[in-house]
Amino acid sequence: MNVAVVGDDALAETVDAAGATLTDVETASLVVTVGEEQFVDVARGGPAVPILPVETEFGPFSLARDVVEAAVETILDGEGTAVSHPVLSVTIDGTTVARGVLDVMLVTSEPARISEYEVTFGAERAGNFRADGVVASTPLGTRGYAHAAGGPILEPGTGLAVVPISPFSTQSETWVAPGDVTLTVVRDDGPVALVVDGRTVQSVDPHQSVRLSVVDHVDLWRVPSIGSR
């Protein structure tokens, strides 16, 4: 098996010791990424081969460094499964401005400022609320910002979690959307930023809508017998 290691040359030696053939991402049949940033960089492109994340917060889809050699040996023996996760396009005014694999946020750029947001699923309005922001997460990303804001952890294939961030009302809802999601800034009391996978993309004006659609998938290799990070 040809394996590419992204983000850590020392771990490449570990993979080589497990019996894999080291190669680059373009010719690999498995990509090992170290850290969330490296994973996001590879996964956004929707690679045709599975990824094995190391040292991330992806629960059962991430491994600790000290079990990587055993995990690669297990994969070489034909064990484990590839689980599909969505890749999102992020569109404003008909133009795709980013791709995301974990989460998409609209958030006020200044402290102690809240704005009003609208959430729409397909053509159906789900609700309006005032908050510091709103986050929509893929199942893989629901262990991050969305969970910290009070959202559920989702299993693959269940949809997107949509969660207000520090809402003004204590009775605010969270949602699980089965399809496309549109987030709109209805009114702002300060600048609102679009943040995708932890990186600020641009500012969003009042009445601008951000549409999220599943346009691709990436497979993550899961090796249950090894255990997660």
TrEMBL record:
One of its GO terms (molecular function) is NAD+ kinase activity. Keywords: Kinase, Transferase. GO terms for biological process: NAD+ metabolic process; NADP+ biosynthetic process. This is NAD+ kinase. The lineage of its organism: Archaea, Methanobacteriati, Methanobacteriota, Stenosarchaea group, Halobacteria.
